[in-house]
């Protein structure tokens, strides 16, 4: 997979796994970047690369851009990624975060 920006130790699969996790099918690039440990700008670069590969798509929601998996992205995640094993920095989807 192409790497468009951000730390080289962050894999695109981590971003795809984050989009596939939780109850929210669409997320902002800041939330995505925070979850995988990269900047907003780095996340946007990676997401744009994955958009060109038809793994994700975006929608302009006023001042924010939201990102979500395409059907090809969903299939890639299902075939290639164990979402349960990926650790995220964000606790927004964790049931244990209300401590």
Write the layout of secondary structure elements.
Layout: H1 12-20, E1 26-28, H2 29-36, H3 40-52, E2 56-61, E3 64-69, H4 71-80
Antiparallel strand pairs: 1-3, 2-3
Explain the overall architecture.
The chain is an alpha+beta fold. The chain has a single domain (12-82), classed as Winged helix-like DNA-binding domain superfamily/Winged helix DNA-binding domain (Arc Repressor Mutant, subunit A, Orthogonal Bundle), CATH 1.10.10.10. 40% of the residues lie in helices and 15% in strands. The chain is built from four helices and three strands, in the order H-E-H-H-E-E-H. It has helices at 12-20, 29-36, 40-52, 71-80; strands at residues 26-28, 56-61, 64-69. It has a three-stranded antiparallel β-sheet. Helix 1 crosses helix 2 (29-36). The protein is globular and about 35 Å long. Residues 91-99 have low confidence and may be disordered.
């Amino acid at each position: 997979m192409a790497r468009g920006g951000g730390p080289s130790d962050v894999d695109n699969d981590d971003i795809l796994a984050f989009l596939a996790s939780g109850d929210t099918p669409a997320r902002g690039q800041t939330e995505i970047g925070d979850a995988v440990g990269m900047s907003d700008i780095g996340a946007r670069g990676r997401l744009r690369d994955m958009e060109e590969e038809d793994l994700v798509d975006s929608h302009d929601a006023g001042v924010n851009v939201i990102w979500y998996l395409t059907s090809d992205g969903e299939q890639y995640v299902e075939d290639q990624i164990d979402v349960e094993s990926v650790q995220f920095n964000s606790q927004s989807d964790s049931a244990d975060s209300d401590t």
